[in-house]
TrEMBL record, chain B:
Classification of source organism: Bacteria, Bacillati, Actinomycetota, Actinomycetes, Kitasatosporales
Species per Swiss-Prot/TrEMBL record: Streptomyces montanisoli
Keywords per UniProt: Amino-acid transport, Cell membrane, Membrane, Transmembrane, Transmembrane helix, Transport
Name the UniProt record assigns to this protein: Amino acid ABC transporter permease
GO molecular function: transmembrane transporter activity
PROSITE patterns associated with the record: ABC_TM1
Membrane spanning residue stretches: 12-36, 48-70, 90-108, 152-177, 189-214
């Protein structure tokens, strides 16, 4: 049962956990990440917000190297991201990722989804892995669905399983890329609740989302991106009630008035 | 009416057809999977080889491939595939070789279509967990790809069963060669055709039905 309180032991410790240093990335001629400097401290919850195409997903994906960068450096817990191979795989295991489209393994049951990484990457004993998985599934409220296949679950349930799958690796930081934007409105809250709980438990989180309620109640900091740059960084209150940049004002007026 | 059949070894010919089909199926499944792995793998040289192989081989008529195996490999280069001087065995083996070389290109494409049905998000989620390249393929992508390849593979197998008749071109004593012999000696043209057609329907229909059922059963629900 101890594995369930994944992040609590880090709560007291501070210090830099994820550091991006003048990171640049192109897709062909498109400069998607431009001189990104970003530091995330242990236990911090950072919400990344910005217009479509501003590079939020790409930023997330570079942090566990699903995308390579052209220049600059990314370090996680003091270790620079390795290029390829075993080292990289180990590092990825320390960075949990939750996708917009859940991406649960379609041919495996919910339980198998949550045990796979523990057994194959962390080399956990199968019984121990199942115990951890069941406890995590209970924690996100889908314990009763353990033996079903992903397609038999609602979107909200699938996304909670995806969170449990990432937590099972005992990650140091969790990345969420628009975790609720593929969900029907009535399911958004059940996922946000799980994320809020996780934040309260002290997990370090980077969350791309336009859910302002979540940002206000759970985030320590909002990072506003536009055109591949970080345009503004502020506390949620400052950012939503008193944005400094014109880009942010413009963006907020669009999402607030619909 | 069917008396004439007693003068011929129909069962023996059908057995040869079945052997041709089974051996070629196993061989082309193995070689076809290797070709598919080359085509989706990260090594440029292997990708190029896989692509070239499939595009060349599947566009050559099977008769030409089998005749090449017989005339080119055996009669010109003296390849006997370990059968010594036994012509029947040599020709049978050459026919299997030709069928494998040809059918594997279709197996490769059936598997590749299966791999393409697996959304990229599946592999990304697996990589994000820290699984290595081989583990991602073995644990996540290929199991899903095989499941959605069952039905296209069934079609390849049915085509293969019928394609075994081309082995008659190099004198393998399978069903089509027997048919030719019967037509030359008997006056029962329609009856002969009906019997042979029935043989192939009996071989292919259950194959299609069973694999169709299996394919539905193991299909990945998304
Ligand atoms: N694999 C790729 N190849 C080429 N261009 C890409 C690729 N992925 C993203 N892009 C482009 O890079 C830019 C940034 O994309 P990204 O997905 O990071 O934006 P985003 O801020 O997450 O947007 P959204 O809110 O729509 O998810 C976009 O213009 C997108 O079209
Ligand atoms: Mg995005």
């Amino acid at each position: 049962m101890t594995a369930v309180s994944v992040a609590t032991e880090d709560k007291a410790a501070t210090g830099e956990l994820v550091v991006l240093n003048s990171v640049n990335k192109h897709f062909g001629a498109l400069h998607v990440l431009q001189d990104i400097d970003l530091t995330i401290h242990r236990g911090e919850v950072v919400v990344v917000i910005g217009p479509s195409g501003s590079g939020k997903s790409t930023l997330c994906r570079t942090i566990n190297r699903l995308e390579t960068v052209d220049s600059g450096s990314i370090t996680i817990d003091g270790k620079p991201l390795p290029a390829e191979g075993k080292e990289l795989a180990r590092l990825r295991a320390d960075v949990g990722m939750v996708f917009q489209s859940f991406n649960l393994f379609a041919h495996k049951t919910v339980l198998e989804n949550v045990t796979l990484g523990q057994v194959k990457v962390r080399k956990a004993d199968a019984r121990k892995a199942e115990e951890t998985a069941r406890a995590l599934l209970d924690r996100v409220g889908v314990g009763a669905q353990a033996d079903k296949y992903p397609a038999q679950l609602s979107g909200g349930q699938q996304q909670r399983v995806a969170i449990a799958r990432a937590l099972a690796m005992g990650p140091k930081v969790m990345l969420f890329d628009e975790p609720t934007s593929a969900l029907d409105p009535e399911m958004i809250n059940e996922v946000l609740e799980v994320m809020k709980q996780l934040a309260e438990d002290g997990m370090t989180m980077i969350v791309v989302t336009h859910e302002m309620g979540f940002a206000r109640s759970a985030a320590n900091r909002v990072v506003f991106m536009a055109d591949g740059r970080i345009v503004e960084e502020a506390t949620p209150d400052q950012f939503f009630s008193n944005p400094r940049s014109d880009r942010a004002k413009d963006f907020l007026s669009k999402i607030l008035h619909h | 009416m069917f008396d004439f059949l007693q003068d011929y070894d129909l069962a023996g010919a059908v057995w040869t057809t079945v052997q041709l089909a089974v051996l070629s199926a196993v061989g082309s499944l193995i070689w076809g999977t290797m070709l598919a792995a080359m085509r989706v793998g990260p090594v440029p040289l292997m990708r190029a080889f896989g692509t070239a192989y499939v595009n060349i081989v599947r566009n050559i008529p099977l008769t030409v491939i089998i005749l090449f195996a017989s005339l080119g490999l055996n009669q010109t280069l003296g390849v006997t595939l370990g059968a010594g001087g036994d012509f029947k065995t040599i020709n049978f083996r050459l026919a299997v070789l030709g069928l494998i070389l040809y059918t594997s290109s279709f197996v490769c494409e059936a598997l590749r279509s299966g791999i393409n049905t697996v959304p990229v998000g599946q592999a990304e989620a697996a990589r994000a967990l820290g699984l290595g390249f081989g583990q991602v393929l073995r644990l996540v992508v290929l199991p899903q790809a095989f499941r959605s390849s069952v039905i296209p593979l069934a079609n390849v197998l049915i085509a293969l069963i019928k394609n075994t008749t081309v082995a008659a071109a190099i004198g393998v004593a399978e069903t089509a060669l027997l048919m030719k012999e019967m037509i030359e000696n008997e006056a029962q043209l329609l009856l002969i055709a009906a019997v042979i057609a029935l043989v192939f329907v009996v071989l292919t229909l259950p194959t299609g039905l069973i694999l169709g059922w299996v394919g539905k059963k193991v299909a990945v629900k998304r």
